[in-house]
Design a protein that fits this description.
Rossmann fold; 450 residues; 15 helices; 16 strands; eight-stranded mixed β-sheet; binds adenosine-5'-triphosphate; single chain; five-stranded mixed β-sheet; binds magnesium ion; BirA Bifunctional Protein, domain 2; alpha+beta
Length: 450
């Protein structure tokens, strides 16, 4: 029989392997702790939605809707469906569908995979993960500043230093309309410098041209009319309010008049956290206000603001910072020789887990259970604090050998402990405190480890 062809992952879609999992866990736990401490609540929405949700929310003339969506027809019923390219549209849909802002504003957060058909490269994948926060029903600059402060706290807690905040206001629709006329006139004057994409967007979405990454156009867009100069009194007051709160909290930022964000539904505050440490895909978090979105979904006018972080980019930044992540570790590795010992080990492992400790039981492979020596090697590699060893002698004596695994070889100790006392012995060793009598016997409370 010929060897079956190897199946590999889809280009631009990554596995997160166990060696990276502790870093992801550290990042996710830290982020969730911070979100909770600011009163944000978790929301989970489906990965697949109606295509129209995104085309309506994100806007037809955007990278995402023009060329990046994974859309398909449901072969069962012909529905037009899309793998979500971002989180905000789904969150707003869910908020309206379940009337979540009926009795006041909401602070929400989500995390999960997003899908965009882009050219895979460093920091740009076809499946990538985002953490996002959405504050829906708040209108003042205070919540904009809060979201930014929350990011600042996250970078601090993760030990990320080389990241800067870029800030802008893109005003409201009317202000953008006035700016747009002048911008188009300016761009038309520089027709010869515009690339094909810019020419295509000249009348449909000229603001997006300011966002260009084409080096040949940089000088020209730098000198283009600045939207900031078209802001009315209210938009200016809002923007000044955000800047004031950031100043008061010693958050540094640069106002970047060319920062417009890629999506249609933004207004007023827009911001990005950017680093130079990741090459050209340096934006690790992007956000802003999207007051008009809820109304375009048929809800009543509800202001809102949020951000989304690219998780792969932040993980890469954490790696670049040399962030030490705790390796995968367990408390106990169970070693055994012989059939009776295997049964004892299996039963004892369950009892130790009942007490709240993490236990890895040595299990057979096609090569067999392995020698005592090879099992001890596995115990070592597991990072376990203790090996519990049961051989024929131990079964006969109803005892187990408990060996300390971490520390210098000379310091390692081995004790003989009766089966019935192994659980308490381990709990005692690992927590450094005796378990009270009431917690002994068959009613073990879970122990709190250091
Ligand atoms: P860009 O201009 O770089 O394409 P974007 O405007 O499309 O960015 P957003 O939609 O604002 O990006 O997404 C928020 C964040 O999600 C980005 O700042 C980035 O960190 C991350 N992100 C976006 N697209 C990808 C991708 N294809 N792969 C990995 N991370 C991504
Ligand atoms: Mg993009």
């Amino acid at each position: 029989m010929s060897k079956p062809e190897k199946i590999v992952a889809i280009k631009g879609m990554n596995d997160i392997l166990p060696s990276d999992a502790p870093l992801w866990e550290l990042f996710e736990n830290t982020t969730e702790t911070i979100l909770k401490s600011y009163g944000y609540q978790k929301i989970v929405t489906p990965i697949v939605e109606q295509t129209s949700l995104f085309s309506r929310a994100i806007g037809a003339v955007t990278d995402i809707v023009e060329k990046e969506m994974y859309s398909f027809e449901d072969s069962m019923n012909g529905d037009q469906l899309t793998l979500r390219p971002e989180g905000t549209a789904s969150v707003v849909r869910a908020v309206l569908e379940h009337n979540l802002v009926y009795d006041g504003p909401r602070r929400l957060w989500y995390k999960g995979p997003m899908f965009r058909h882009e050219r895979p490269q460093r920091g740009r994948y076809r499946q990538f993960f985002q953490f996002g926060a959405e504050a829906i029903g708040f209108s003042g600059p205070d919540i904009d500043a809060e979201l930014i402060m929350m990011c600042r706290r996250l970078w601090d807690d993760l030990g990320i230093e080389n990241v800067r905040l870029e800030l802008n206001s893109i005003g409201n629709a009317e202000e953008r309309q006035r700016h747009r006329a002048d911008l188009i006139a300016y761009l038309e004057q520089h027709d010869s410098i515009l690339d094909a994409e810019a020419k295509r967007r000249l009348h449909s979405n000229p603001l997006r041209i300011l966002d260009t990454k084409n080096p040949a156009m940089q000088e020209m867009v730098n000198a283009a009319p600045r939207l900031l100069d078209y802001l009315g009194e209210e938009s200016l007051a809002h923007f000044n309010g955000v800047k004031f709160l950031l100043d008061q909290n010693a958050v540094q930022y640069t106002v970047n008049p060319r920062l417009v964000r890629g999506l249609d539904y933004y207004n007023r505050t827009v911001f990005e956290w950017v680093t130079d440490a990741l090459g050209s895909q340096g934006t690790i978090c992007a956000g802003g206000r999207y007051d008009p979105l809820v109304e375009t979904f048929g809800g009543k006018a509800t202001p809102a603001v949020g951000f989304a972080m690219g998780m792969e980019r932040i993980i890469e930044l954490m790696k670049a910072m040399g962030e030490p992540a705790e390796p995968n570790q367990c408390d106990v590795y169970m070693v055994h020789q012989g059939e009776k010992a295997q049964l004892q080990a299996f039963i004892l492992a369950e009892r130790i887990r009942d007490a709240g400790l993490d236990v890895v039981l040595h299990c057979a492979t096609p090569a067999g259970a392995g020698s005592f020596k090879s099992q001890m090697k596995k115990a070592d590699g597991s990072g376990a604090a203790f090996a519990v060893i049961i051989g024929e002698d131990e079964v006969a004596n109803e005892t187990a050998a408990v060996k300390t695994m971490r520390g210098e070889i000379g310091e390692q100790q081995q004790s003989t402990v009766p089966f019935l006392e192994v659980v308490d012995y381990l709990v005692d060793q690992i927590t450094g405190a005796h378990v009270h009598d009431e917690h002994c016997g068959h009613d073990h409370d879970h122990v709190h480890k250091h």
